[in-house]
Design brief:
This protein has 176 residues and is of the alpha/beta class. The protein has a single domain, classed as Rossmann fold, CATH 3.40.50.150. Helix content is 40%, strand content 22%. The chain contains 7 helices and 7 strands. The longest helix has 19 residues.
C-alpha cells in the first residue's frame, strides 16, 4: 500500500477530515491522490523546494542537485495541482517549522508529515504540527521503520515526542 493510500484510508476512517496539510510535497503525487479521492478536501502543500547541504544524503534525489532544478520542480508541481484543483490546494514554500507559524492552532483535521526522515527533523515536525491539528484529528508520519539518520530514527523521534502511536501500512499516526 502506497503512503498516500494509507493517508487516504485514515481520512475515510475518520470521516470529517476536510482540511489538512502535507509537509513534504516533492512531486505532488500524494497531494494529487488525496485531492482526487476526497472531493471536499482542502490541502495545504508545504515544501521549501530548497537545496541544502547533505540534501542527497537524506533524499537520494541526485537528479535535483541544484536550487535551479528544485525551483523548476516547484513550478511544475504547483501549477499542475493548482490547475487541476483550484482553490482546494494552497502552497506554502517554506521549511516545515517556519510554515507551521502561518497556520492557526487547531485549524487542521490532519497533518501528513512526509518530509526529512532524520531524527531531529521528525521530532521538530511533530512539535510544530501537533498543535495545528484539532482535537479528534490525526497526525500521520513518515515510514516508522526508516533508518535514514541512524537505526530506528523515525521510531525514536515519534516515541521521544509523543510516547504513543499506531501503525498502518508502515506509517505511524496518532489521533489527537
Amino acid at each position: 500500500m502506497k503512503r498516500f493510500e494509507i493517508v487516504s484510508s485514515l481520512i475515510k476512517e475518520r470521516l470529517k477530515l476536510k482540511r489538512g496539510a502535507e509537509i513534504g510535497v516533492w512531486r505532488g503525487q500524494s497531494s494529487e491522490y488525496l485531492l482526487s479521492n476526497h472531493g471536499k478536501l482542502h490541502l495545504i502543500c508545504i515544501d521549501p523546494y530548497e537545496y541544502y547541504s547533505h540534501y542527497d544524503t537524506f533524499h537520494d534525489l541526485g537528479q535535483y542537485d541544484t536550487q535551479l532544478k528544485l525551483d523548476g520542480l516547484y513550478e511544475v508541481v504547483s501549477e499542475r495541482l493548482k490547475r487541476r484543483f483550484g482553490d482546494r490546494v494552497k502552497f506554502i514554500r517554506k521549511r516545515s517549522v517556519e510554515a507551521s507559524r502561518d497556520i492557526k492552532d487547531g485549524s487542521l483535521d490532519f497533518a501528513f508529515l512526509d518530509a526529512n526522515y532524520g531524527y531531529d527533523w521528525v521530532k521538530n515536525d511533530i512539535l510544530a504540527w501537533l498543535p495545528k491539528v484539532r482535537n479528534g484529528g490525526v497526525i500521520i508520519g513518515q515510514n516508522i521503520a526508516s533508518n535514514k539518520d541512524g537505526p530506528g530514527c523515525v521510531r525514536r523521534a515519534v516515541v521521544d515526542t509523543l510516547g504513543r502511536y499506531k501503525v498502518k501500512g508502515g506509517r505511524w499516526y496518532v489521533i489527537v
